[in-house]
């Protein structure tokens, strides 16, 4: 059972790699600098790729169980203050996703024994932003920048289906972990006793515990009936105000100091809309196939992540 992971050094990729390896999967993490990848678990090795084609790694896809395509430019960057979406940053965001998809498709085309499944990562930003109403997988795509990026991201690997390869799309919400992603940025103000709502506080946030994210991807790999888009989010999205109050409760910190939307936009530019706007996304397809969440509610998830009983 061989699984190839692009973007294996990221938050989700690292967690998925360890989870699969612990259960006996052979895991291959693609990296532009495989010689620098160290401390890999047993059953895991790194292989080189140029992030644009299957050159040098196509043969690994021959007979593979799955290719999990997580590779992409980080929307917010690696610094505490998120990167502004300059023209150059926008190009890198889009191009990284298109090139990784092309590389996966290239590998599928080259090998005689096609992989069983391609898991294509995406995001709930696909739907655009909405104030009300639950959003399931049938909901149409939005018309903003993130929606257009998600559409292109998903479309990049669509042709693998013409080669008889099953494809499942994981439209992920905000992944909660102290190890990376956006959560550490949200957590710091509460640790400093200055937490509060962003903007109106009424915007919906669709979130998921990192552990359930990994379990959902495993579910999509291991269930042959899983194909098409899946919302990889917890079943109980919350408004920003509720998120902050729950985080304050778990940490025993106040939730009182609002951050005006205009102030966030002044500092961050358009990227501020990631937290000031949202959508109420629910995981209908996952649940209909029988997936069960270990952390269905926000308080449960936060208490586990933060070690608070």
In short, what is this structure?
This protein is an alpha/beta fold.
Question: How would you describe this protein?
Answer:
By secondary structure, the chain is an alpha/beta fold. The chain is 35% helix and 17% strand. It has a seven-stranded parallel β-sheet with strand order 3-2-1-4-5-7-11, sandwiched between helices. The chain has a two-stranded parallel ribbon with strand order 6-13. Strand 1, helix 1 and strand 2 form a beta-alpha-beta unit. The mean pLDDT is 94.
What's the arrangement of secondary structure elements?
Blueprint: E1 2-6, H1 11-22, E2 26-31, E3 44-48, E4 66-69, H2 87-110, E5 117-123, E6 134-135, H3 145-155, E7 166-172, E8 174-176, H4 183-191, E9 204-205, E10 207-209, H5 210-222, E11 228-232, E12 238-239, H6 240-251, H7 261-268, H8 273-276, E13 280-281, H9 284-288, H10 298-306
Parallel strand pairs: 1-2, 1-4, 2-3, 4-5, 5-7, 6-13, 7-11, 8-10
Antiparallel strand pairs: 9-12
Helix pairs in contact: 1-5, 2-3, 6-10
């Amino acid at each position: 059972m061989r699984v190839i992971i692009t973007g294996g050094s990221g938050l989700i990729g690292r967690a998925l790699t360890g989870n699969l390896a612990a259960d006996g999967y052979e895991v291959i993490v693609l990296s532009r600098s495989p010689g620098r990848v160290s401390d890999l678990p047993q059953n895991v090795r790194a292989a080189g790729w140029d992030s644009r084609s299957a050159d040098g790694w196509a043969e690994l896809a021959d007979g593979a169980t799955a290719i999990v395509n997580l590779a992409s430019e980080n929307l917010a960057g690696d610094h505490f203050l998120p990167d502004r979406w300059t023209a150059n940053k926008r190009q890198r965001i889009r191009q990284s996703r298109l090139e990784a998809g092309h590389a996966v498709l290239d590998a599928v085309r080259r090998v005689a024994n096609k992989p069983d499944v391609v898991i294509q990562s995406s995001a709930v930003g696909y739907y655009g932003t909405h104030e009300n109403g639950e959003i399931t997988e049938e909901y149409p795509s939005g018309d903003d920048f993130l929606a257009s990026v998600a559409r292109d991201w998903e479309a990049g690997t669509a042709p693998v289906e013409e080669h008889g390869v099953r494809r499942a799309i994981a439209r992920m919400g905000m992944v909660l972990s102290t190890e990376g992603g956006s959560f550490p940025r949200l957590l710091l103000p509460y640790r400093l006793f200055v937490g509060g709502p962003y903007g109106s506080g009424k915007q919906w946030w669709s979130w998921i515990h990192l552990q359930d994210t990994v379990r959902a991807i495993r579910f999509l790999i291991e269930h042959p009936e899983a194909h098409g888009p899946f919302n990889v989010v917890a079943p109980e999205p919350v408004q920003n105000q509720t998120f902050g109050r729950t985080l304050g409760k778990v940490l025993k910190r106040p939730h009182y100091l609002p951050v005006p939307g205009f102030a966030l936009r002044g500092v961050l530019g358009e990227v501020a809309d990631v937290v000031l706007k949202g959508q109420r996304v629910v995981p209908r397809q996952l649940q209909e196939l029988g997936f069960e969440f270990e952390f269905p509610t926000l308080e449960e998830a936060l208490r586990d992540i933060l070690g608070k009983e």
